[in-house]
Amino acid sequence: MGVFDDKKFDELDWISQATEPIDSKMNEVLGLMPESLTLDFNLYTKMLSNSYGLDLSLEKAVAYCLNEYSPDVNLSWDQKNVMRDMFEFQINVDEALILDFENGTLSGGEIKLVKLASTMDEKVLESLLGKEGIMAVSSMYCTQAGLSRANEIMDLLGNCEEGMRTRSDRRKRRIIQTRLTNLFKANEWNIRDTELANKVGFWIRDYVSSGNLAAFSNFCRLKVMTHKNQPIYSMEEVV
Question: What does pTM read for this prediction?
């Protein structure tokens, strides 16, 4: 394997190479979640363990399942919101649902948490490309040397001429954010993995803020790979 080869792309079957689906850890997490869960008293109260009230929201139920079935995977706030939309409550009520704490029972009907699909919608995954990294750039700070490093990044990003002329670290940061937002909205670099897309912003932040050369090397390697005119799923990173 060469430095600029994409191992993950090369391992895809020919149909996937032709259709270029977006890869994401969210599909892996969704696959670990049960197709449906019937809530009894114990499960209902477990899902409310971090709540002050007795009303069970879809957000709380899905958060419980994420912690239960994929405890080692950290999702961002946006990713958790998207995951929540992949589930719904299905409720069959005879007369009224009764949560009996004295006897530890849930009666009067049935509550199910049901998964709506086995994979994430491509459009949804596209909307998440680079988002976490762009948020990281928003917290980026520039020393005097950082201003020069920010210019290097903007030169490689392209369409950042205004940012390269200014001496304001705030404006440089804003222009890099805007450029990344537009880049991922159009997916100009054809990155087809949500985790790899997010790394772009983190590499930029680490290089501009602290001069991390490994981060800059990774950013440059990715930029070189865009000239191959094929979807990018993975790259060999410097650590």
Answer: 0.90
